[in-house]
Design a protein that fits this description.
Elements lengths: L1 E5 L7 E4 L2 E14 L2 E5 L16 E4 L2 E15 L2 E4 L3 E5 L7
Antiparallel strand pairs: 1-8, 2-7, 3-6, 4-5
């Protein structure tokens, strides 16, 4: 099953606060502020009450800006999302998004 969410582009910026992504990749042009890359995911502490799986790769940052983002993720949660131009689709055939 593929859950595809797109937003932004000509519609405007996409923003989120306290964003947590559980996924396998993140692609795009990124700028990080106060980044900690490669920590054990179970030790991440920027978002209260959220811990990753022990032994998994973790990344946290005070802020991040990503342009042209593409990600394969199992979940994404955040305090506040602003998704201009939101498009959402679900496919049962498992076709890749990109």
């Amino acid at each position: 099953m593929v859950f595809k969410l797109t937003a932004g582009g000509p519609a405007g910026e996409v923003t989120a606060s306290s964003l947590v992504i559980d996924g396998e990749d993140l692609q795009g042009d990124a700028t990080f502020g106060t980044a900690q890359i490669g920590r054990d995911a179970s030790t991440l502490d920027q978002v209260e009450g959220v811990k990753g799986e022990p032994g998994k790769f973790g990344l946290q940052a005070g802020n991040i800006e990503v342009v042209g983002v593409r990600s394969r993720a199992w979940s994404a949660t955040g305090g506040d999302f602003r998704l201009k131009g939101l498009r959402l689709s679900v496919s049962l055939d498992g076709a890749k998004c990109f």
